[in-house]
Write a structure and sequence with these properties.
By secondary structure, the chain is α+β, with helices and mostly antiparallel strands. It has one domain: Double Stranded RNA Binding Domain, CATH 3.30.160.20. Helix content is 39%, strand content 16%. It is built from four helices and five strands, in the order E-E-E-H-E-H-E-H-H. A hairpin with a 5-residue loop joins strand 1 and strand 2. Helix 2 packs across helix 3.
Length: 140
Amino acid sequence: MIKLSERIAIEAHELKERFVRASGPGGQNVNKVATAVELRFDVTNSSLPHETKARLIEQLGSRISAAGVLIIDSREHRTQGQNRVAARARLAELLEHASRRPAVRRPTKPKPGGGARRLEGKRRRGEVKALRGRAHAGDD
């Protein structure tokens, strides 16, 4: 069991990590050591609750493959360990976001005086704009 955050823990066998050579900082070390991490998480076959899976697939859309696998790539650090931690943190953040139920919108009714105030404001604005026209010869 891997604990990604306070609320989220997943089975260790659900994560697949692959280490590849990274571009970026590291100098000559970049050419020799595989420090970049490619973290794969099979969303469709995971132990997550069904509604969390559905929200995750909906939210990530194109970032999830046709087979239902989420791939997170981390190569911003110089060490394999730091990249591994960064990739897992990003996965935890995505899972945390998907696990929250969206707030239910409750429609509200406008108050009775609101419509009257709106119409009064429109009338006043119309009067102001009507006064902007050219002066007519008979208006002296």
